[in-house]
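Reviewers of the previous submission asked for a worked example of the structure-prediction workflow described in the proposal, so we include one complete record here. The input consisted solely of the amino acid sequence. No template or homolog information was supplied to the procedure at any stage.
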Amino acid sequence: MTADRPQGNFLESIFRQLERCSETPVLQEICEGQAVAVTGSELLGLVGRVRLFLQGSGLKKGDRCALLAHNGIRWVAMDLAIMAEGLIVVPLYPRQAAAELVAMIQDCSPSLVVYGDARLRGGIEQNGYGAVRGLLLDDVFGDGRSEVNVSPGTAYTAEGDPVTIIYTSGTSGEAKGVVLNLGNVGHMLGCTSGRLDLLMDGKQGQERVFHYLPFCFAGSWIMLLTCLLRGSLLTLNTDLTKLTGDMRTANAQYFLNVPALLERMRKAVDEQLWKTGGFALAVYSRAKAAWVRQQEKQARMVDGLWLGLAHAIVFPTIRKKMTGQSLKALICGSAPLTLETQLFFNMLGIRVLQVYGLTETTAICTMDDPRQVEPGRVGPAIGGVEMKLGEDGEILVRGPNIFPGYWNRPQQTAQGLREGWFHTGDQGEVNAAGNWRVIGRIKNLIILGSGHNIAPEPIEDKILQQLPGAPQVVLVGNGRGYLAAIVTGIATQEQVQAAVDTVNSMLPHYKQIRAFHVYPEPFSIENGLLTANGKLKRDAIAARLRVEIEDLYLATQTA
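From that input alone, the workflow returned the following structure tokens.
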């Protein structure tokens, strides 16, 4: 289906597309195995109902409205209605600790907080925040009638009008509210839709897209708006425990992912085939080995036979069980994907397209061009966006996708935006073809006592590849004489030592790990050691495990 490109106001473009799809399902939830869908006109009716409610609530343009709820059709209607009324939507993550959510709510001072259910509202109120009017989605939508005729026009008039405040993860401190405006989002939707046109290669008919990532994350939200703009059928997962089955039900042509899920899918394939055994395992194992040799330019004459057999009788079954029969590509963002995992999916005949960006860049700076993907890299800069390397290899970005600033934080805004360039804090590199690679975070660099600067992420990824049962690996060693590692989960000392020995054999002496500690409790959002989107809170981890880390160095000094 042809997208209506955003012309000034992306919301009006979305509303026009919904009018064109008046009798066509555009959004559906899977609940208890059943799909509940709304057509374009029904979604507009829900948006109209919310707009009438907001118009009677005494809110004025520029007021903030916080939305704390899980993904769903009503979340989408709330989001569109809040923005259409000229209010600023503040989406919040339901799984985040209540104390952190309270801090965000206090920071943005909303005039209204809308909760998905009573439990979410209770968690906020029990943590000392009840000063602002709080309502449930049920209160807003009333008796559930969907047909309400409200003009699909919007209150926005200028490109600089703020439409949302999205709170960043806060890996090393308090989360900051990123303000995104009408122009930021409109430009980004034009870029994402254009890249999807290349992926779909002129194919006609309504696209099918699957979605499971929380809408309160910038990249997830941009995907939602892009699908609405394109008139796609977007299928929402509402229960992560049923993710695999819902993927097959959606039979999507593409969907957005995080590396953690693709890593789990890869490991699940290996485990399932190992349990199954027999001829399928024999072909799969030999084909995998052949594929690796091909990538290393060491192919043997027999390799083509095993790969041919696998493509004929094993790989199609794996693809069908994973994602259905219609998949054209997996799109992956939020963190660097390991080269090994991207190549694994390529081996199965599944393209993985990478995206790189931050909330401050309206979620995206680079996107793989589907016609020319370079595994291990995150693609070229999107249209209208400039990127370059600054001091210490830091990625700098400027363009219409760059946010105007942090909410009520002028000093931090000035630190991040300098001379027109946004300083991402990411260390990267770019090749002659213009394809970028992200190495790690500048602030995560470990500087040993010897003066060597080490990006921990690539080494951590290598160890994780050797330890399938370990959820996380964190390197430490700032100012110390050598690197040490914290490994979470149930791995044994022997397993970790074997993994460390394997990785050390590939590294120069100053990057080798000399000690490690196995910490049985995985880091999580709930225990405060992961951010809302699953990134390591390295400072918090170092503080929580201060004694264990000290012991790693004391043990060596006294040996």
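The chain has 19 helices and 25 strands. We consider this example representative of the routine output the project will generate in years two and three.
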